[in-house]
Amino acid sequence: MSKISLVVGNGLSISFGNQSGISHKFDSQQPLNWNVICPTTGSLLIDNLPSLKRLWQKNINKPHFEIFGFALDKFYCNLIGLDSFKTTLEARHFLTIAFSEYSVLQSSKLNVDWTWFQWLELHKSEIKGALSFNYDLLLESTFDKLGINYHSSQVNHIRNGIPLVKPHGSVDFEMADGIIDIYIEYPLNNFVDLNNAPIKRLLHCSLAYPRKQAHCIIPNEANKYENYQWVSQSSIQFRPVLKESDYCLFIGISYLPCDRIEIDRIINTLPESCKIIIANPYPPEELLGKIKDRGYIVWSSSDGPIDESGKLYNLK
Predict the structure, then answer these.
(1) What is the dihedral of CA 214, 53, 182, 96, to 10 degrees?
(2) 258 partner at 20 to 30 Å CA-CA among 51, 65, 113, 309?
(3) Looking at the whole model, is its pTM more than 0.85?
(4) For residue 193, which of 171, 170, 216 has the smallest C-alpha distance?
(5) At what angle do helices 64-71 and 84-109 cross, to 10 degrees?
(6) Eight-class DSSP state of 38
(7) Is the peptide bond before 50 cis (omega within 30 degrees of 0)?
(8) Strand partners, 297
(9) Contact 214, 96 (CB under 8 A)
(10) What tens digit of pLDDT does each residue of 42-74 get?
(11) What burial class does residue 79 get, using C-beta atoms within 10 Å of its C-beta: 0-12 exposed, 13-18 middle, 19+ buried?
């Protein structure tokens, strides 16, 4: 039986968005356009995050991932009268609440017609671990529907099943109880960020509320959570999975400069015998250059993990 590891990026969500039709309402590359309602005021969430809104208004025609990157630029923020720390924190909260709503919709639309669902169902006994750079819960919802047990080193779930590493955070992560006793509302009245504390996982029905600490590395931000306990514990358990992989799938990975150290570490952990599969209609040239001396395959269909005849690729 083959041993398969997964490394998942935004391309998986784009694939599902196109197949399900939800990309018309929720373009995962343009989240600031989403009409997300604030859970504490009932008005638009962006209107309750004034620093982030001002940053967006100053750069209204630019790609949203680039705008989030501007929040990290202290010099630029000062230039337009913003505080970079507060703007970045507001961005974390916006993305957490926005992608919570997105995740609930994904779960409600998930069905067996999606080719990646079919492929994961075909290979569910071979999948030994996963790492996802996504905030959303599409992979988790798929695993739930398929009966694949997983864990992310959270305190409120039994740690059985395969490791699921989410090094950039997740919308269902919240600081564990008893760490900080604080009430958060929007607009933000308390500014809590980057505490290396245990996490608990939230149920889907509990996602639409302000987090004590939003666990979300924003686009173009280097990973500040890399050595946090919930990342390092999951990564330790994922490492032997990588070392024993017969196949490692990189699904919709964009290989952005801010992520390359993490992705290169994964590639370098894989055995020479592991076949690397790049599932991406537009595989990044830099990523292909990184693995040029390794055995690799590109799955380039925009319809998912299917060959030219429309059949699912079978790694059994």
Answers:
(1) -20
(2) 51
(3) yes
(4) 216
(5) 140
(6) P
(7) no
(8) 277
(9) yes
(10) 999 999 999 999 999 999 999 999 999 999 999
(11) exposed
